[in-house]
Each structure stands twice: as structure tokens, then as C-alpha cells.
Sequence to fold (234 residues):
Amino acid sequence: MTGLDLALVEQATISILVIIGCFFLAVGTLGLLRLPNVYNRMHATSKPTTLGTAAIFLAGFVQFGPGGAGLTSLVGIVFLFLTVPTGAHMIARAAQEIGVPFLGSVTWPTNHRESDPEHPASNPEGDEHRDE
Amino acid sequence: MTAVSPMTEVTTAVIDGALLLVAGLCLLCGYRVIRGPTVPDRVVGLDTIATNVIAIAVLVALKTDRGLFITVSIVLAIIGFLSTVTVAKYVTEGDIITRRGE
Fold:
């Protein structure tokens, strides 16, 4: 009887996690289609898409157990949480360097720290630090 | 044992519906890839498509009960990350592999 209940709980957990993942993936794609700017679209896609895929990976972990493919699912979650923000950061920096305009009064955050508001945001001062 | 089979049918239906939904989301991301006004828009669209394909691989693993497709999804994640970083570097610097002294 307990084995039956465990199977039921397992199937229900897989279904709920897959539904949550599909919800987050749908939200991310809706933001990609609807938001007005590259940066806003990146903001909308990277986080919900990561969460949705992580939920579907967790469903895989529930199905396959703590060894083998389930462990690979957990590694996939860690890998997604490491790589997706890195990729979004690099796309954001590339978009800023090729001159995609910001919305409204938004400025690049490094210009605030260097306290030099006279220079525009497309001044590539960070190149010297990166090329070293 | 009679209670397990309808729940499994529900799970199978949920996974099938999720596969259809995520495939449709990939097509919707293709709209942004085609119509995106700038190059980073297209890169973001392709990145989202890559993440959706990772989700599709995991869903296929759930549907067919084969753990091999989880490994496939990891490989797809690596390829998507590398392509994103490569395109970002290419857009920024006009070249992918640059020497340090130049």
C-alpha cells in the first residue's frame, strides 16, 4: 500500500514540476515577444527560462532517482544556473558596446561609479581592463 | 494497482502537452530571431530556443524513461552557452579568437 502511495506521489510530483516548468518557459517567451528593448527581453528570458528548465530537470531527478541520470539532472541545474546569467551578461555588454540605446533615463552602471557623467555610455573604457 | 495506471496516464498527458507547448514556444522565439531589430535580439532569441530545446530533451527523457536524454540535454546546454559567448565576442570585437598583446 505504501509503495502504491509512493508511486502516486512520484507521478503527481513529476506532473506538478512539469506544469511549473512550462509556466515559467511560457512567461519567458511571452516576455521575449512583448518587451520593448534588448535588455528588457534579456531580463525577461534569462531568469524565468532558467527556473522553468530547472523545474523540468527536477522532474527528471524525481523520475530517475538519486543515482545515474538523476544526478546528471542535478548537475544540469547547477550548470544552467552558472551559464545562463553569464551568457546574458555577455550579450548585454555586447549590446551596450555596439550602441543599442537604453530606455528612458537608464544609464550603464559603471559610469555612476567612475563619477564621470560627461562621457556617453558607449565610451569603451572597460576594454583596457579586459585586454590585459 | 488500479490506482497507478490513471495517474500514469495523467502524467503522460501532461508530458505530451508540455512537449507541444515548448515546441510552440520555440516557434514563437523564432519570430524574435527573424524580426529582431538588432543582432543581440536575435542572439537572445536563439539563447531562449536553446534553453527550450534543453527542456524538450528532458521531457523526452521523462516520456521514454531513458536517462540517456538527460546527458543529451547537458550537451545541448554546453553548446548553447558556447554559441552565446562566441556570438557575443564576435559582435563586440569582430573576431572570436584574439591574441592577448593586440
User: Anything to note?
Assistant: Chain B touches chain A through 54 residues (CB under 8 Å). The mean pLDDT of chain B is 85. The two ends of chain B are 70 Å apart (CA to CA).
